[in-house]
Design brief:
Radius of gyration: 16 Å
Structural class: alpha+beta
InterPro entries: Acyl_CoA_acyltransferase, GNAT_dom, N-acetyltransferase
Protein name: RimJ/RimL family protein N-acetyltransferase
Pfam family, one: Acetyltransf_3
Number of domains: 1
Keywords: Transferase
Bound molecules: coenzyme A
Strand order of the largest sheet: 1-2-3-4-5-6-8-7
Strand content: 25-35%
Largest sheet: 8 strands, mixed
GO molecular function, one term: acyltransferase activity, transferring groups other than amino-acyl groups
Number of strands: 8
Length: about 190
């Protein structure tokens, strides 16, 4: 079990968004994220709707989808509607791609509904999460791991200030490992 801490806040606001924990009303939004072929193109592929529905209804329960620390729904702060998810949590040490001796490091991940791409929402959500984490946690490297073919994700990582440092094979595709010091996000 990782000892690495992550953000403790259950809500993090920004200008247009609110990072918050999931509600039952987020069910349709989650189902769309897991079943949309474009959204899933570089993160495992779309899953059959019936499987996702079953997982949310029977096994997970929508409200538990973000119960782990560092896992958030990205919501529009005027409508409270789910537009995506963000994760800032320990990268499992048995996955390739490490920058610390013990293999423990915070990894940033982001997924937006297709209709929310191209408006800077992922950049805004990641920035506010990293700033809050930099305020709360000691300096440490943060990772973004993304398929090298996932140009939008690489562009976002670069815009946030992450530098690509290596590539490796995982899930049958080349992955790019990017890193940035958490202290870079302190304001
Ligand atoms: C990766 C992903 C989150 C990037 O979304 P995105 O909307 O392109 O990212 P950003 O929030 O940085 O938005 C950037 C775009 O918004 C535009 N934009 C508009 N208003 C903006 C604003 N106020 N601030 C910043 N950018 C703004 C930028 O010009 C840029 O446009 P472009 O796409 O034409 O270059 C999205 O493609 C996605 O969900 N992909 C599927 C999941 C995935 O692969 N995740 C990666 C796992 S590691």
């Amino acid at each position: 079990m990782s000892q690495l801490r992550t953000l403790s806040a259950t809500e993090v606001p920004s200008e247009r968004l609110l990072l918050r924990k999931a509600h039952d009303a987020d069910r349709e939004g989650f189902i769309e994220l897991y079943t949309d072929p474009e959204v899933q193109a570089y993160i495992g592929g779309p899953q059959p709707r019936s499987d996702v529905e079953q997982r949310f209804d029977a096994a997970i329960g929508t409200a538990n989808a973000t119960s782990r620390p560092g896992n958030y729904v990205i919501a529009d702060n005027t409508t409270n509607r789910l537009i995506g998810t963000l994760m800032l949590a320990c990268r499992p040490t048995d996955h390739p791609g490490h920058v610390t001796e013990d293999g423990e490091a915070l990894e940033l991940g982001y997924v937006l509904r297709r209709s929310a791409w191209g408006a800077g929402f992922a950049f805004e959500a990641a920035t506010v999460a990293l700033r809050a984490a930099a305020d709360e946690l000691p300096d440490q490297p943060v990772l973004v791991v993304t398929q090298t073919a996932n140009k939008r994700s690489l562009k976002l990582a670069a815009r946030l200030g992450f530098c690509p440092i290596s590539t490796f094979e995982e899930f049958g595709a080349e992955q790019t490992l990017c890193t940035a010091p958490l202290s870079m996000f302190r304001i």
